[in-house]
Amino acid sequence: MSPKIIPVQTSTEFPSSTSVVIIGGGIVGLTAALTLAERGIPVVVLEKGKIAGEQSSRNLGWIRKTSRVAQDIPLAQMSDRLWKEMPSRVGREVGYRQAGIMFIARDETQMANHENWLKSVQHLDIDSRLLTANQIAGLVPMGRGNWTGGIFTASDGRAEPTLASSAIANAAMKKGAIIIENCAVRTLVTIAGKVTGVYTEKGEIKCDEVLLTGGLWSRKFLANHGVKLYTLPLICSVLRTKPMQGPTDIAVGAPDFSFRKHQDGGFIITQRGKLDAPLTLDHLLIGSQYLSQLKGQRNFLKIGLGKYALQDLSLPRRWDKDQISPFEKIRTMDPQPNIQLNQDALNNLKAAWPMFDQAKIEQAWAGVIDVTPDSNPVIDQIDQIKGLTVATGFSGHGFGTSPAAGQLAADLVSNYPLIIDPKPYRFDRF
Ligand SMILES: Cc1cc2nc3c(=O)[nH]c(=O)nc-3n(C[C@H](O)[C@H](O)[C@H](O)COP(=O)(O)OP(=O)(O)OC[C@H]3O[C@@H](n4cnc5c(N)ncnc54)[C@H](O)[C@@H]3O)c2cc1C
Description:
Layout: E1 20-23, H1 27-38, E2 43-46, H2 55-58, E3 62-63, H3 73-90, E4 101-105, H4 108-120, E5 129-131, H5 133-139, E6 149-153, E7 157-158, H6 161-174, E8 178-180, E9 185-191, E10 194-200, E11 203-206, E12 209-212, H7 218-223, E13 232-241, E14 251-254, E15 257-261, E16 267-270, E17 275-278, H8 281-286, H9 291-297, E18 301-304, H10 307-314, H11 326-329, H12 339-352, E19 361-371, E20 378-381, E21 388-392, H13 398-414
Parallel strand pairs: 1-2, 1-12, 2-8, 4-14, 12-21, 17-18
Antiparallel strand pairs: 3-7, 4-6, 5-6, 9-10, 10-11, 13-16, 13-19, 14-15, 15-16, 20-21
Helix pairs in contact: 1-6, 1-13, 3-13
This protein binds flavin-adenine dinucleotide (FAD).
């Protein structure tokens, strides 16, 4: 079960037309909707399940520049600014705290990775700095880990996934957006290669532009229209403790665990060193694009078959507007958390900061991440289908950049000046 977001009263009306349809009510689609609504552009968000029911409620809430590739940093920097403004923009708390993010290294190789990253972003205005073991102990006391060193970015932070999407959705609706839940979009409607609307399970909505922010499902949706998007799934398991005394407000990532403080005083913990990688048919079709990524990350992945793979095999790969689509068959992707990985994470954390011996697990969940071959999203217009823009493939770090990513998508859709240069996110780069 995913963490519960603050409930949102979505619309019951079903309009026959609008300017922009957004497919997918995760945080990227919702932020784009908010931006369009603020510009007075009629927009309808269609969500097959519940808003933020998939990745956008299940993530860790980290908002970081640290360890992003240099080309991705302008999006993260712009998002920092937008997160700061978010509470006044949406009139509600989103849990944003600029409490810093630290990554710590257990050996020289891991430390060299941090040093190399810092060198690679030296031309950018970033406050990241390397740390010695003593400095780590000063910032995160009461540990007994034997760290080689680390890296710290004071301007990184976190927000609460259970607050942010609801607050953004409510603000978007207040400004005129229509959001409809339990409404899967089956196909696009096109005339002469140009979008004229969408077919949903509840009927057709005519529109001028479509923005696809379908997360994990975008690849299937586009494949049905003959458009190839490169994403593969990874499953990340998470646990949340009951409120407890912790060593710091800083979010800390070690090689085999991470923790960050939750707004209720508990901690959100994950095994940073291992992710479940379910094998699917897509691995045969596009896996070769991922070979260089696999080389570097083989030890991080628990590759195997499993429930997710079987479920994926059972879904149709082609359908038309009158047929039930995969999006109705699975309203909310809710994978089982890997209890062993969660337990390993907690044990590794206890060994490093013994005060976590008192941790009591309150909740565990998992989420499926949509990963592109270079781990950066696609935010672009699709040449093959005029009037279609996508913002998807956020590869496990799209919560932090969602404010600027949603705005960039909205800029593309509404022909506004672009918030940042979209070049790193081109669709045709693979
Ligand atoms: C466990 C975990 C930890 C993470 N930790 C972090 C983190 O700390 N920091 C960070 O920055 N990022 C993190 N991420 C990644 C982050 O959550 C995602 O990048 C981000 O939420 C992506 O948002 P989205 O709107 O693109 O996708 P989603 O939230 O997945 O939303 C897509 C929505 O589209 C809907 N949809 C799809 N197809 C259709 C259709 N045809 N019709 C109607 N609706 C449709 C889906 O139901 C879904 O609700 C994590 C992810 C996970 C799973």
